[in-house]
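sorry for the late reply, my laptop died twice this morning and i had to redo everyting from scratch. anyway the thing you sent over, i finally got around to it. pasting the sequence first so we're on the same page, its 501 residues, then the predicted structure underneath. double check i copied it right bc i was rushing
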Amino acid sequence: MAKYVGAIDQGTTSTRFMIFDHAGHVVSVSQKEHDQIFLEPGWVEHDAKQIWMNTKSVMLDALKRKNLSGRDLAAIGITNQRETTVIWDKTTGEPLYNAIVWQDTRTDDICNKLAKKGGLERFRTQTGLPLATYFSGPKIKWMIDNVPAVGKAVNKETALFGNMDTWVLWNLTGGVEGGLHLTDVTNASRTLLMDLFTLDWDEDILGTMGVPKEILPQIQSSSQVYGTTGEKELLKTKVPIAGILGDQQAALVGQTCFDVGEAKNTYGTGCFMLLNTGGKPVLSHNGLITTVGYKFGEKKPVYALEGSVAIAGALVQWLRDNLGLIESSAEIEGLARTVKDNGGIYFVPAFSGLYAPYWKSTARGLIIGLTRFINKGHIARAVLESTAYQTREILDAMYKDSGVKLITLKVDGGMVVNELLMQFQADVLGVPVVRPSVNETTALGAAYAAGLAVDFWRDYDDLRKNWSPDKEWRPDLKSGAGNSGYKNWLKAVKRTFDWLD
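ok and here's the structure:
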């Protein structure tokens, strides 16, 4: 019997393959970064072919590191950067344009034109989403309208669309030789094209958006056996592909947030808080997203409220790569600790506009409160604090929408190793912040979805046994971070509004 489950974690900056045992422990991991392509201000692209090559490379490397083979894997799950859009030709397997990344803002004009009738909330009742550049649907329309190769392939009926989960799955299951053109409900719910209630593509929105249904993948659950690995030279055996979850929903599953009111926050390139709201969608009136949390097999879907922040860990990378204030991301905590507070400055990283709860694509980044007293330590501290303050805004909106008061926040992602940030986050929220012993919850959630489909794990209780806390930060209510500091943050945010005409 196979002892392990593998997970492909295709993220915004890199692709990983992780192997987990039954206790949810990491057995092996391999990771490879891919290029970030910035052709114009606000444009962000990836080379989809490079990502697929990296996916194959890390899968083989992770197995090799522990002298394992495909026969040791009971199943493979996929988790991915959501909304990132790729269109390829099914006869050649070649992408027809670079993948347009979720952060990209080039579809602003498309969204504004669609919003002339019904405003930004035009499709919220059906999709749970506002009209925004974030989602896949407008990206598809932009490609059809602006990339001749895409328009030609659509007319010839050889074009296929997918978020990165679909692109990876299609290649993994054979590509031009019978690759499966599927997605799961969590990724489909991020396109602005899926009806939250029917869990199928909305014909009216497709017509309005100008997206042909023929190019879209079939929508499936998040946990079922879709097919098997098709490339003989890759794993040399047929391993079931049995789980797909968008990255933030995967983290919700990895954190075992299976009860209504449980929430997690992932601190990665962006920052994403999800609150389990149960079997019915809760439509937000306070700037949040209603999304599918997960759907396992034939069970009914579980929904979530989500607050999406575009720039979190990416701001630390910006401090490193664009300003050169640090040589590695890990150095920011030490630099921030050289000062006792932020010195009165606030950094609002609206590099690609503001996401939840504002949804203002015309906002741009701002540093305010500068005096000659300020040094690079204060800037580093303001960078970290911006993530915590943005999370507070999301939590406040969630409480207004759901009435659920958070007792504890489960956290994961690359930034949670920063203990200064975690303590500040607890101070700002006024609730304990808990980091799990296995921090790789996104990949773990994909592994759980795949493992449940093949009975590697039996049920939710089986998964809950694997979760344990690593460290907890309790709020210091005397710090003022959740009161005066937060008040100043809100003032700073308002000054970023409508910078672009």
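The chain has a mean pLDDT of 93.
thats about all i looked at so far, will dig more tmrw
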